[in-house]
Amino acid sequence: MKKLVGLTGKTGAGKSTVSEYFSKKGAYIIDGDIVAREVLRADENLITRLCDAFGDILNEDGTLNRKKLASLAFSSAENTEKLNSVMHPAINNLIKIRAEKAFENHDVVIVDAAAIIESGFADDCDVLVVVHAPFSVRKKRIIKRDSLSEKDALIRMNGQKDDDFYLSRADFVVRNYEPYNLENELSRLEKELFAF
Q1: How far apart are CA 140 and CA 101, in angstroms?
Q2: How many CB atoms lie within 10 A of CB 163?
Q3: Of 72, 79, 66, which Cα lies nearest the Cα of 34?
Q4: What CATH code is carried by the domain that includes residue 148?
């Protein structure tokens, strides 16, 4: 039996760590961020629509200034919604194509995407996994990971839904913070995902 797994959580929770673990266990990983970049390269119409929505977000050479777009898009829930309405349909379509192809050789396909619930793609998944960590832990992680100022980290974090939005929809929660042991959390999840 094939399983399509949605993997999500707030920025800095540790989705990439969980993806890496399951990739080593034989799951096929589809990274929503990579798909989003590929969609933008493949469809010039999307960049035009983003410019219409957010104004001057291009570099001098005409390419998309991703940092500028992120700063604007995550500055408010309304702007995040605007970004999502442009991007999600195209991203979801490409993810579905990739997942179908991956199932030719894999039993478990994991879609790692921050906005999988908001995009509606979670409804297509057999299991929804949410990676969770408290605000203070996540803030430290993303400042270090992305070399952000505290102000920029807070802008990015505050553009997301509250914890309950994710946790209330989860089929499985991976707690990636002390006092929980991540290895134990992943081992529990592995039994769930690879039980056929």
Answers
A1: 37
A2: 16
A3: 66
A4: 3.40.50.300
pLDDT string in tens for the chain (196-residue length) = 899 999 999 999 999 999 999 999 999 999 999 999 999 888 889 999 999 999 999 999 988 898 899 889 988 878 988 998 999 999 999 999 999 999 999 999 999 998 899 899 999 999 999 999 999 999 999 999 999 999 989 888 887 889 999 999 999 999 999 999 999 999 999 998 887 5
CB under 8 Å to 62, separation ≥6 — which residues?
none
Q: What region does 120 belong to: left with phi over 0, alpha with psi -120 to 50, or beta?
A: left
By residue range, what is the domain housing residue 127? 3-193
* Residue bearing tokens 């707030």: 10
The helix, strand and coil proportions of the chain, stated in percent and rounded to the nearest 5, come to 55, 15, 30
Q: Measured between alpha carbons, how far is 144 from 47 in angstroms, rounded to an integer?
A: 29
Domain count, the chain: 1
Does a cis peptide bond (omega within 30 degrees of 0) precede residue 89? Answer: no
CA atoms 34, 31, 4, 87: torsion sign: negative
Strand, coil or helix: what is 166?
helix
For residue 107, give the DSSP letter: S
